[in-house]
Write a structure and sequence with these properties.
The chain is mostly helical. The chain contains 21 helices and no strands.
Length: about 400
């Protein structure tokens, strides 16, 4: 439900226990669903109900009376009528806690995605291109590390924010990657809120709090540019529309202008980084809305820079597609062929990219096979409809 991220974050800040916060929310949500009449303020009800259940569990587990005193006094649920914001929004604080340097970078991002954004472990595993059991173990170990290391559940002093910034930005990037891949909104429906909108809010908040960090500005610009195309990403059937085929009149020009302003500020500061390069790639694509073309040579050069700054198979896949636009499908296929196929077997973008270039090279049967492999990886409905239409067209 929509209240989950805010309530879990507030409970975690109060209880100083990530697992306890998630369990308390789940029990509160179960109790809420059993009510004959829903409360007028669901978030406040869940916060109080979850906190009460957590306190009861602690009282039962420990005999010392000081445990109860350590937690704030809980108001009776009947006293909650209407408040403009009954519980504090602790998501930014929890984001910095999950990104503590005592945890590994990828572990930090996975933990943040699970606790703060509420992503299911299966979705997080797909983002990291690992198995679901492996990702579950990583997140479980990270929660244990938070407990064992005695990591304080407080927003750290501003002077140490920069050392956690990379992990914070990575968590936001991955959360938005999940939201962007979910063009039809299935994941957001399961979570009860627009995940893309929430990541946009947090990215802009981080950029506002750290205005002299060009990479924070770059990520905010990247999210804004991707979000600017939200209204053009589905056709009337609910199928995903590729970027090259989107109706530019349905893009949000206010977001594009805001993003361009953020990038200009980052450029004046200097210290270029991968998020600024990724935003520059997206900004290059937006030129199609103004002059009708995409400068693929510029896109390819930017991917070359990005591959040096942050080498990864996913960046290499995107570079191969850009290369195909400049030098032809065969050149793109050769670039894809140099990547570790076994490692990418569970990555839909790999199979989709191969299908696209194989089809352009006239290898229809092989393209159909690549699309079959992509479809076997359980894509969201909007992407599946597009892939099925692409296969039928072959």
């Amino acid at each position: 439900m929509a209240a989950r991220p805010r309530v879990v974050a507030a409970l975690a800040a109060q209880l100083r226990d990530l697992d306890g916060a998630e369990e308390a929310f789940a029990e509160g949500a179960e109790a809420c669903l059993a009510l004959a009449d829903p409360p007028r303020d669901v978030a406040a009800w869940l916060f109080v109900a979850g906190k009460r259940r957590a306190l009861d569990a602690i009282r039962k587990a420990r005999s010392a009376g000081r445990t109860a005193d350590a937690l704030a006094e809980i108001s009776d649920m009947a006293d909650i009528i209407t408040l403009p914001d009954p519980i504090p929004d602790e998501r930014l604080r929890l984001l910095f806690i999950c990104c503590h340097p005592a945890l590994g970078t990828e572990v930090r991002a996975g933990l943040a995605l699970k606790v703060i954004c509420g992503l299911p472990v299966s979705a997080i595993a797909r983002l990291f291109v690992v198995s679901e059991p492996a990702m579950f173990q990583r997140i479980t170990r990270a929660k244990a590390k938070v407990r064992e290391a005695g990591i304080a559940f407080e927003l750290p002093p501003r002077k140490v924010w920069p050392e956690r910034l990379g992990a914070v930005l990575l968590a936001l990037e991955l959360a938005f990657t999940a939201a962007y891949a979910d063009a039809g909104g299935e994941l957001s429906a399961d979570l009860g809120e627009d995940l893309g909108a929430e990541v946009e809010r947090l990215a802009l908040l981080v950029a506002e709090l750290l205005p002299q960090e060009p990479e924070a500005l770059g990520l905010a610009a990247l999210v804004l540019l991707a979000r600017s195309r939200k209204g053009a990403r589905l056709d009337p059937r609910g199928a995903m529309v590729p970027l090259s085929q989107q109706d530019v009149k349905r893009w949000s020009y206010s977001r594009i202008e805001y993003a361009q302003g953020l990038m200009e500020r980052a450029q004046r500061i200097g210290r270029s980084g991968p998020y600024q390069v990724m935003a520059a790639i997206q900004l290059t694509h937006t030129r199609r809305a103004f002059d009708g073309v995409v400068d693929w040579n510029a896109v390819l050069r930017l991917y070359d820079v990005l591959l040096r700054l942050r080498p990864s198979p996913m960046v290499a896949i995107s570079r191969a597609l850009a290369l195909a636009q400049v030098e032809g499908a065969e050149a793109g296929l050769a670039a894809l062929g140099a990547l570790p196929a076994e490692r990418l077997a569970l990555a839909r973008p790999w199979h989709v990219a191969r299908a696209d270039l194989l089809a352009k090279a006239g290898q229809s049967d092989a393209a159909q096979g690549a699309l079959d492999k992509a479809l076997a990886l359980d894509p969201p409905r909007a992407e599946r409809l597009w892939l099925e239409a692409s296969r039928a067209a072959l």
